[in-house]
Amino acid sequence: MYQELFRTMREERNHCFRVKQDLAAANVELTLRAQERDATTSSEYYRNKMYEEVKRDKKEALKRLYEAQIKINNMEQQMKEIMMTYDMKMNEEHQHQAESEKRYQEMNDYTLG
Question: I need a labelling partner for 78 at 20 to 30 A (CA). Which of 39, 43, 61, 104 fits?
Answer without folding.
Answer: 61
